[in-house]
Design a protein that fits this description.
Order of helices and strands: EEHEHEHE
Structural class: alpha/beta
Number of helices: 3
Low-confidence stretches: none
Distance between the termini: 33 Å
Strand content: 25-35%
Number of strands: 5
Radius of gyration: 12 Å
Strand order of the largest sheet: 1-2-3-4-5
Largest sheet: 5 strands, mixed
C-alpha cells in the first residue's frame, strides 16, 4: 500500500508523472502536490501515467478532473494513461473520458 510518483520528461515533450500504488483519500494530497509542482515549474503538457496504479477512488478522480480543468485554463494539454484494470473501470463508469484525454500509452501523445 502507499503511493510512488516519479516525474520525468518524455521524448515527445510531455512531462510525465508515473503513479504506482493506490490513489485514495490518504495518498491523493501527494498526487496533488506533484501536479501543482509541474503546473508551476514549466509550461509543458502533462500526462499522469496510471498504468501501474492498482486502485483509485473518487478523491483521485476529482484530483484528475480538477487538474484537467486547470491545465485547460492555462492552455496546456493534459492526459492520463491507463491500462485495463480497476482505474480504467472507474474512468469508464465516471464518464470522464468525454472531457479528458485518456490514452493506453504515453507513446500516443504528440
Amino acid at each position: 500500500r502507499g503511493l510512488s510518483i516519479r516525474n520525468s520528461q518524455l521524448p515527445n515533450g510531455w512531462q510525465c508523472l508515473t503513479v504506482e500504488g493506490e490513489v485514495d483519500l490518504a495518498t491523493v494530497p501527494e498526487l496533488g502536490v506533484a501536479i501543482d509542482s509541474v503546473a508551476a515549474e514549466n509550461s509543458t503538457p502533462l500526462v499522469i501515467d496510471l498504468r501501474s496504479s492498482s486502485f483509485m477512488d473518487s478523491t483521485g478522480l476529482k484530483t484528475l478532473v480538477m487538474a484537467n480543468r486547470r491545465f485547460d485554463e492555462m492552455g496546456r494539454s493534459f492526459a492520463i494513461a491507463v491500462s485495463a484494470g480497476p482505474v480504467s473501470r472507474l474512468l469508464d463508469l465516471s464518464g470522464v473520458e468525454s472531457s479528458m484525454r485518456v490514452v493506453a500509452s504515453t507513446d500516443e501523445l504528440n
